[in-house]
Write a structure and sequence with these properties.
Chain lengths: 363, 363
């Protein structure tokens, strides 16, 4: 029996390989090196699997139109995990994709029980502003709220709801709660509506997601074929690893020590890393020199690998030196902490400058 | 245990009294005589029950603003049963209500599996055109399609979906199918959205329905209280009897002999009544003279009572004479047939004249 994936769950993924096999995902390796100017974490295995990405790759290679959609749940602080996804959005925009960003405020309203106005503020202040500060260009990106999209989008929700059954929904999500169904129906419409005649019409579209969102992708792809009147092209998808929480577990918005927020004071972030980053270093220096660090569990190492050390030669040296025990845990932490401090110092200035890009988003 | 009501079912209602007791409906008697210039069928018991209608009655008496909403399922022919509801719509418009008419095309799309464009055509040609021909004025009525309503309407669907549970839905509807939930969610939004700030704000609103639609009313009233941010006033409702099918059973769009359509040729309608109307007359004339007709089952009699003989004195004479056996079944049929023929002749001319009122409804 396939390992269950709960898109609303808090399960940590232990075995990416098993999930790929169970659900028929293909490894991303063949594209990782071939995508032009890919972000660091895409080149280095942070994006590890896909469905039908060949169709997107062909568009990139052939300079043909394609689209990308991603979503954000307005909740908590914008942290490095979100920044990793933001880099993908920006990357696809640079590749020429028509970019859609869904603010899942209806889902958040039902799940988090917060007023829409408050969710709107979080989306703008924490997410959208940081996207722009990180380099997303307002022109050519369609950032929208589920609660105020468009008639054709909502019509699609009404239409697709008749194309499934309670049994199918329960088999995928283990639930028949109306609020879950309506959340999922919005998500399916999010993914499909860029292909409506009112938007781009049928077009290759990719959705970068965490593996926990794959049930939505599979379900959407199934339903795609049940709406032949729209000639939807089944959406493609890529799967990225979750960034580890600072202390080694999951990042959790309820635990500020589990993440570095992009609004953290730079010195505070530095301190968090030095004091709390889960280390793959050994119990004492002698042992460390002998065995080398356990890179697979070392959080600082992974932050460098996926985000903060884009230079391959430097990264290789860290890998070699830390893996062999030549470099100590404190040194790696220090190396990362400095990078993060500088990044935050620069980013926080950019963030304030980016406020003029929020004109389209009335509070 | 209360008698179950299935809003999607084909059950014929046998015992209105039991259903009223089971579901806490109040008799409409106290208002039936007091409503000014009420349509014939409302004065004569065709509207037999209500929830919270006192709130509406107070508005009528006090000339205060109120609203009315009803819906149509674009399907089959527009027949006398629909005309009875149309008379209520027109009556409320004359009383000064702000009138909303929902075309339940998303529900029809999911239930009848017809393309939206085809449903649109049926709604306009069969329903809306006949409403106008029967006297509904385009000014001051808001006729809309579920598939193209408005952002605030769809936002409400998203929000209310999180205010219920699968168990509650199953207890009311005996189903957890997504297409049923989405149909119901649209219907609840239909009933509530006139009270959104984008429309009228909180306002007394009544929904005239057949008893089979009461689950939607109860469910809507329950959910009303779970959206305190809108200060919705719980909607009122009235319940009308179903018009009997011509042959005594239910009207069914799949059986043209069960109804008189407003597009039937007048002579064809006359012939249908003479040949097929279910009679409460006795087995032979002698018996009929002795026992009188069984008025409770006589379809022609009921059509006269509720629709075609508004004159109380004349109706009383028919009741007396037919009930006592003085009048024969054929004579009552002939009386009705002539009324119906003349009505259709006049209506069909009005129908063509009313086409200029369809300007707002592009095909």
């Amino acid at each position: 029996m396939p390992a269950a994936i709960d898109p609303w769950g808090r399960n940590e993924v232990k075995d990416y390989g098993k999930i790929m096999a169970d659900f028929g995902l293909k490894p991303f390796d063949e594209f990782a090196g071939a995508m032009p100017d890919a972000p660091t974490f895409m080149r280095r295995g942070g994006v590890f699997a896909h469905r039908d990405f060949g169709r997107i790759f062909d568009c990139v290679k052939g300079k043909k139109p394609f689209a990308m959609l991603t979503g954000l749940m307005p909740s908590g602080k914008f942290h490095l995990g979100h920044a990793m996804l933001a880099q993908q959005i920006i990357y696809y925009q640079q590749l020429g994709a028509k970019v859609f960003v869904t603010v899942a405020d209806i889902e958040a309203y039902n799940v988090r029980k917060l007023p829409l106005a408050e969710l709107r503020k979080i989306a703008i202040e924490e997410y959208i502003l940081n996207y722009f500060a990180l380099g997303l260009k307002p022109k050519g990106v369609d950032i929208y709220f589920q609660s105020e999209r468009s008639i054709p989008y909502y019509r699609l929700i009404g239409m697709l709801s008749g194309k499934t059954t309670a049994n199918e929904f329960k088999a995928i999500y283990g639930s028949d709660e109306p609020e879950k169904f309506i959340s999922v129906a919005h998500q399916i419409a999010d993914i499909l509506h860029p292909q409506l005649p009112d938007y781009l019409g049928p077009i290759p579209l990719t959705v970068p997601v965490g593996i926990d969102q794959d049930p939505h992708i599979r379900y959407t792809r199934d339903i795609t074929g049940r709406l032949p009147e729209f000639s939807f092209i089944p959406p493609s998808s890529t799967y990225h690893k979750f960034m580890k929480g600072l202390q080694g577990g999951k990042m959790s918005s309820s635990d500020p020590l589990s993440y570095i927020a992009l609004t953290d004071a730079p010195e505070e972030a530095e301190r968090k890393i030095m004091k709390h980053a889960f280390s793959g270093g050994r119990n004492n220096i002698a042992e460390h020199r002998r065995l080398g660090a356990d890179l697979a569990v070392d959080v600082s190492y992974q932050y460098l690998l996926y985000l903060f050390e884009p230079d391959d030669a430097k990264m290789k040296k860290i890998t070699d030196d830390y893996g062999s025990g030549k470099m100590l845990s404190g040194e790696v932490k220090q190396y990362l902490a400095e990078k993060v401090r500088k990044f935050l110092q620069g980013h926080q200035k950019k963030r304030e400058k980016a406020r003029n890009k929020l004109a389209a988003f009335s509070p």
